[in-house]
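Final paragraph of the annual report: two paired records, presented back to back.
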Amino acid sequence: MDIIIGLLIIAIGAFCQSSCYVPINKVKEWSWESYWIVQGVFAWLILPLLGALLAVPAGHSLCELFTAGNAFSIGMTILFGVLWGVGGLTFGLSMRYLGVALGQSIALGTCAGLGTVMGPVLLNIFFPELDALSSLTFAVITGVAVTLAGIAIIGVAGSMKASSLSEEEKKAAVKDFNFPKGVAIALLAGFMSGCFNVGLEFGKGVNFGDLTPDMYKTLPATLLVTLGGFVTNAIYCFWQNSRNGTWGDYRKGHVWANNVVFCALAGALWYSQFFGLSLGKGFLAGSPTLMTLAFCILMALNVVFSNVWGIILKEWKGCSGKTIAVLIVGIIVLIVSSFLPQLL
């Protein structure tokens, strides 16, 4: 029962994350770089800080935790957060050129596979005594492989969509649709986004041990990763504000209330995936396989729900029945990948 509860919590977080781009459509009169960094203040600073505070027992503080002599682990966690920030930037661009469904499918699929494998591999290089590679069992590798197969099938559906629609139909579904450019950006986004899980691996010991409940233990590391990512995104967005002359966006007082509300909502929905991941892993402690695969499962479910939103937002409108059938097969494979490893 605990495993089912844990997977359900992760699924809820995935659904929230896949919905985070919907509120962005309600932002008015702001350029991409302006609303991206404002929602990032909520997604990568405020909410992760509040989440991390849940891991702090009475009589202690986050400051105490971050100055407790684990500087190397903290530094590596932030570093991989900075690298993940590049993935976060390009992730947003992949949505712009491919749409919610296809963009998230390719980016998150790459992120799921590489993020799951890179964490133990890199951790083993720096801390061989932890034997992190032992977590990459047959069941884990099989789970990653099935996930990537599901992503590949959805990618085929996307390619079929791109080849079957006219330019006018593509633009009607996704305004700036550009399949070759979007795929390249999405692959880069997925590779760099996988660094998030690597950061979590390096920071998994940054907590108060037995004083911190299992379901909150990864929240301090999540804050460190998102802090690094915020730095990357802030530098880029402010550079774009200067380059594009969009600093004036922040002075449009008549849209501030509307835009901040929807940016905050988008940030909350985005952060829900990692809050849910932490809570869910607290229920998966009895299954080492699912603990290792939790990040991969989250990404797979993100893809499932993003394609549901893609259908709702009519991004697949005009596609043939064959294309939709391939898409549905890919979604089913991804759902199966979330449960298959536990049966092996």
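The closing record of the year follows.
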Amino acid sequence: MKKYGKSGAGPLCLLLAACLLLSGIEGSAATKDELEQSIKEKENAISQAQEQKDQIQANISNIQAMVDDLENTKDDLQAYVEQLDGNLAQVQSRIDELKALIEEKEAEIEETKLELEEAVAQEEAQYEAMKVRIRYSYEQGAQNYLELLLTADSFGELLNRMGYIEQMNTYDQEQLAIYVKNKELVEACKAALEEEQSVLEQAKAEVEEEEAGLETLIAEKEAQITSYQSDINNKEAAIAEYEADIAEQNATIAALEAAAEAERKQLEELNKPQATYDGGMFQMPLASYKRISDEYGYRIHPTLGVKKFHNGVDFAANSGTPIMAAYGGTVTGAGYNSSMGNYVMINHGDGLYTIYMHASALYVSSGQTVSKGETIAAVGSTGRSTGPHLHFSVRLNGDYVNPWNYLR
């Protein structure tokens, strides 16, 4: 039997070398407790994803019930429009929630993919390290450990060597436990990724269904307004109602302008700075649009069949298309009107205003300062509208003017 003295503890050196090798490979590895925490977080993520799928299913808008309920108000066009706009707002809000969920899930999926890649890489590194350790143990065998103990020169050295062997055994058990937990984390990441992907796909499918429902309601509205206004028996009443709507619009806008003017005078009296228009050109209020569906000026009304003044430019666009401030200014009004639908009115100074009508959603409020190009609303078909579009108007000193004078 080969003797090992103080100057040549061969097996001990090999044990320590193996430990150092494993420590180098495992140095960046998570602890067992950290892995258990990560597994628990993934299990919670899976549970949350399952709840989200159930919630998506439970919150599907009942479009047919909305359409059926509208039958009760068809004889009163204003009440019908207001009720249907409430339905449109409900469905649009649902679409916005789903789109926010889609963004959230896409971010979570990317994060889970990275965690899965890290867990797989760590699992492979641990596996290779354990193979090195097992190979060493197989090559040295139990006899080598016994020889290590029997060749100790003193009782103290014997105890030290017994301690090293115990540490190695403990280390092996810890690394095995970590390896097992890491495999569990890999599986948990895969399961979480699958559930998150499932939520994403369900949310995307639901957005399509809700958008189809939105189009159904808009088509119902278009059909009803067109039918009402084109019915020869309703012609005089429809024309009178249209004129009353325009008068209501003008009254609302005039009141907002009067309030803005009163504020301007107050600032003037206090020698405080006031908004002024610097003469710059406006930008288009929509980044993209299908076509101009109605121009500014006098034209034959499409359903009433009589000559009427159209006080703005209509840009046909898909529901939800961002509406941007054509120029910087202060929001004078942001609200709902049965004729204008959801609208925004911006004061640019010196009596110049822009108005944006029929929005599906508003993103600004009265008193807010906005910059040129800032998103202020989304295209819709609220109010007296027969399809998704933006009605864009410009007013100067209390009168409507041609928007193209500022857009070109």
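Helices lie at 10-26, 32-58, 63-70, 77-150, 155-230, 235-269, 404-407. This concludes the annual technical report; the extension proposal builds directly on these records.
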